[in-house]
Amino acid sequence: MKKFLRFFVFLGVVLLLGAFSYGGYGYVKVQRPVSSISHKQVFVIETNETPKTIYKNLEKQGLIYNANFAQLYAKIHKIGQFKAGHFEVDRSWDLKTLIMTLSDLKKAQSGLNKVSIIDGYWAKDIAKAIAAKTDLQEKELLRLWKDKNWIKSIQQKYPFLTKDIFKDSIRYSLEGYLAPATYSFDRKMSAEGVTKVMLDRSLKIYREHENEFKKSSLSLAEVYTLASIVQYESGSDLKEGKVIAGIFLNRLKANMPLGSSSSVCYAMDVERAKGDWKACEVNSKVKSPYNTYQNKGLPPGPINQPGEIALKAVLNPEKTDYLYFMHDVKTGKVYYAKTYEEHQKNVKEHLDLK
């Protein structure tokens, strides 16, 4: 009996020491920067947000290791009177610097504007949206997005930016990789700064689906390129997008042209969203490496910024025997076909080109 008692006492002591060791390690670790490399980002504290919520958000955004230990540290050192506002912070800061910055109203940024980048936006659309809310010029942004030297200087951080984005026929090297989202940009932010914020968002999406990217039969550039076409053809409908992605893959395997009018829109610089879609449908012979009616395989690069849903569709395509599809522009309904004859029948019945 005494042996059992000694054993349980010993076990309790070991567990207690382990708990203290873990707690001590966590408390020390949380004080350190999460990164040795400078990485600036905007952190937002809303009015009336509780400290608990703020610390959780800091952890979610990768700015601290552990919300609970960080809050404990702040209580012990009697710091952390957070202020509402937008703050520019850095992942290379230690915990004390971060907390003190978020507690200083003078450090809260003014002039932050929300910029919405919609799924399917072209690079020029993004440049226009950013220029409207900042001091940046559209031409400045577009010039940066095809600046090979600058892109190569940051390429290592973003594994989805492969050498394929530097093809001479590609209009903008970063076309397709500037993740759609609603961003908060300071009016004085640099072109490099806003671009890195968007690429960071793309990196987050890539990391969340990294295993799927690795399992795909397509290269990284091919996934983004096909996703951009699927984005145009299916929008935010994942179920429809999976079927359409599967159809395009079937056509690639059969050595057939993809035949997507969205690629013609991009080749002609015609914005289908503004009601000019008919011009894309009737100009399938336009000479361009982006024209997927005249050229087999995928275009040189993405034709827009695909949203996460379009990427998921390409990474998880639906297997079918379909080789053709078309939309009824009035109802939005999609008609699928296994043969060209079936497809032509659908076109005749449901596509109004008048």
What does this structure look like?
The protein has about 350 residues and is mostly helical. It has helices spanning about 1-30, 50-60, 65-75, 95-100, 125-135, 140-145, 150-155, 190-210, 210-215, 220-235, 240-255, 260-270, 275-280, 310-315, 340-350; strands spanning about 40-45, 85-90, 110, 110-115, 180-185, 325, 335. The chain has three domains: about 25-105, Endolytic murein transglycosylase (Dna Ligase, domain 1, 2-Layer Sandwich), CATH 3.30.1490; about 115-320, no CATH class; about 320-354. The protein contains 15 helices and seven strands. Helix 10 packs across helix 14. Functions as a peptidoglycan terminase that cleaves nascent peptidoglycan strands endolytically to terminate their elongation. Pfam families: YceG. It catalyses: a peptidoglycan chain = a peptidoglycan chain with N-acetyl-1,6-anhydromuramyl-[peptide] at the reducing end + a peptidoglycan chain with N-acetylglucosamine at the non-reducing end.
Entry keywords:
354 residues, mainly alpha, three-stranded antiparallel β-sheet, 15 helices, elongated
In short:
With 354 residues, the protein is mostly helical. It has 15 helices and seven strands.
- N to C succession of SSEs: HEHHEHEEHHHEHHHHHHHEEH
Helix-strand category:
mainly alpha
The percent range for helix content is: 40-55%
Quickly count the domains.
Answer: 3
- Write down the oligomeric state: single chain
Strand order in space, largest sheet: 1-2-3
Radius of gyration: 26 Å
State which percent range the strand residues make up: 5-15%
- Give the overall pLDDT as a whole number: 87
Strands, total number: 7
Low-confidence stretches: 7-25
Total helical elements: 15
Query: What is the general shape?
Result: elongated
Largest sheet: 3 strands, antiparallel
Question: Distance between the terminal alpha carbons, to the nearest Å?
Answer: 95 Å
Protein name: Endolytic murein transglycosylase
Family: Belongs to the transglycosylase MltG family.
EC number: 4.2.2.29
Site (Important for catalytic activity): 233
